[in-house]
Amino acid sequence: MSRATRAAFDEQVGRALGDATLQEVIRDGQDFMQVFHEQARGELDWPALLDQVEAVRSHTVENLDYYVDQFAANVEKRGGVVYFAATAQEARAHVLALARQRSAKLIVKAKSLLTEEIGLNAALEAAGIEVVETDLGEVIIQLAHEKPFHIVAPAIHKSLEQIRVLLSAAAGEELPADPAALTAFARRFLREKFFAADIGISGCNFGVASTGSVVLVTNEGNGRMTTTLPKTHVVVMGMERLVPDFESLEPILAVLPWMGGGTRMTSYVTAISGPRQAGDEDGPEELHVVIVDNGRSAILGGKYQKILNCIRCGACLDVCPVYRKIGGHAYGAAYSGPIGAVLTPLLDGFQHHPELPYASSLCGACSEICSARIPLADYLLELRADMVRLGSGSGAWQFGFRGFAETAVRPRVWDAAERLAGVVARPLTAGGAIRWAPGLPGLWTRTRDLPAVARQSFRRLWRRRPSDARDGEGTGGTRRLP
Amino acid sequence: MIDASGGPLYELPDDAPPGASPVGQPRAAARDDRGRPTTSVGRPRAALMITCLGDALFPAVGLAAVKVLEKLGVAVDFPGGQTCCGQPAFNSGYRDDARRAARAFVRAFAGSQSVVSVSGSCAAMVREHYPRLFAGQPEEAAATALAARTYEFSEYLVDVLQVENLPVAFKGKATMHHSCHTLRLLGVAEQPERLLQMVDGLEYVPLARARDCCGFGGTFAVKMPAISTAMVDEKVDHILETGADVLVGLDMSCLMNIDGRLRRRGCAMPVKHLAEVLAEGWRA
Questions:
Q1: Which CATH class is domain A44-299?
Q2: Predicted ipTM?
Q3: In 3-state terms, what secondary structure has residue A227?
Q4: Are A449 and B260 an interchain contact pair (Cβ–Cβ within 8 Å)?
Q5: All CATH 3.40.50.11810 domain ranges in chain B, comma separated
Q6: Which of B116, B193, B151, B123 is nearest to B28 (CA)?
Q7: Do A364 and B260 touch (CB under 8 A)?
Q8: DSSP state, residue B182
Q9: B95 interaction partners in chain A (CB closer than 8 Å)
Q10: pLDDT single digits (tens) B156-173
Q11: What are the helix (H) ranges across A118-159?
Q12: Domain residue spans in chain A?
């Protein structure tokens, strides 16, 4: 395990576990969403709906080459310009070039996980361009210089007071701790930015291949401002974010608001089909669509393909007992929770994130809730197996499991090993429990008691049973058990 | 309003990746043509899967399970060749080592009829993961057959033996931890609750956030001990909130985790496998 990454992971975990307010915020958030998960199941024919979502996503991902071509051709037919970026670096360079050609000084952005994934803001800011996030949650974390804490609710971890301090600094005056007043400030602040911006950048919840439309699912109205007011609109999207047509988008739009925000529908569903057309009253003069691969085609056709089914609803974060304790920042990337633990190593190489596939107790709550029926827990197991196969397992574990297997295939040796464990454990045992142990068990006994090793294992006790009972033909109840 | 009742819009691929099959669906017990659970001619016979932890740390659970099964008329075998199902290695990614242990495990249970496990997680390892672990290997047929006849203890009692009442008494309140693999991989949720409700004098108190993991997760408990401890702490809080006299479970690994944290926090609440509750309270 890479020490640097593990240290960063542990630091973030320690910070989250030590922050009582944060623990409460995450717990409340999950408990809040659980109510909606149950309500959704009561209101809709959930299994049938998920069948449809899964079918649409699997079909699209399986035929992605076809739908990407169709989508790109239709964007161009409507007057948009399509660019394919193979890597994050290519995508950043292209957007930067677009900005430079337009001498852009100010860029407004609607919420986009993909631009987080490729680190777009930092690249634009390094070139001296002011980048302003306009989704309220994103505004808050941009002011705090943080990554999103949750893929749907990026600033869910911030308290009202923390938000007040951040926004007051941006306002240059002390704002009251009143959500309405804070929102009113954000609205004034952002309004000016929308009118002054040279370029608006958005992500894309779904691209509709049959029409070349970019569909955005938003709540605050900032998405429409970002994509309508500036002269240039740049869409940056992952190449798997497509559906064949509007009909196939329907089940996804039924599921996404429920699982993402606990609502039947969002305030806005925006379908953008090309730049301003003849006769349109508003809209950008030009539309650029940057379709980003960044590791996705390496996933296509392999055993992890279904991870591309994800509709980014965030439900797996809301049920994950590990996320419930460590929050989003420990995952060290744009994507957190179970989807992050699987997707980030796949996109970025697990040598950079060796701790992520192990940041799970394999409870399976993620697989159970997933809107697109991605077998997330199975994928975590597969990733672990791949890591071991490619030699990134630690020497101690490798040695340990080899020894385990050698012993497990020899019941007599196993029996002897159990007795040896008993002998070793005895001096450490008091009152039927072990409160301190060295080595690996010591990581357990730091916070928990270990049970004593039994004086007689079950197999030894069984051997002492009378032979007529042992062969299963005894009279059972009439015999006293040892 | 979306009409969700229609069929899928698209056909699923034939070569769906692992896990595409629905998991957690309760499995119907094998039945004969008159709807009775299939057992051997005459007396039902079952092989006990004690599990590695159960053998070394909790033999009393095995004895309790044997007592209950025998009281219910089951002839119990204990195949002595069994050691560990291989789950620790499998869950950590060491598939070759897991397969070695699993191969010996399959061999140990060859010739057994129903296999009854005192751990839901180990039963799930055999049922969910063995068929895939041995796909394309010489042992595939034997592993798949073992998977098909492996049951968790409460599942065997309710679904196979069709137990409807028990001569068992217990005085007090009991709450239960539904272990994750028992719940989600085996689809066993109602069975243990039904059995507890058959116990005379037992008041069943459901646990808040009952579906949450206790934080054990096998090697997770020592690989990420701080997270694991935070998880079990919340579980312990919810358990104590119930005011129950005993915590009942179906998986000693999870119970060992919860019990270990309860003791460390100075709480004396007893933690028992369901088999122990039934065996201890069996009248006459």
A1: alpha beta
A2: 0.93
A3: helix
A4: yes
A5: 163-280
A6: B151
A7: no
A8: I
A9: 385, 388-389
A10: 999 999 999 999 999 999
A11: 120-126, 136-143
A12: 44-299, 395-478
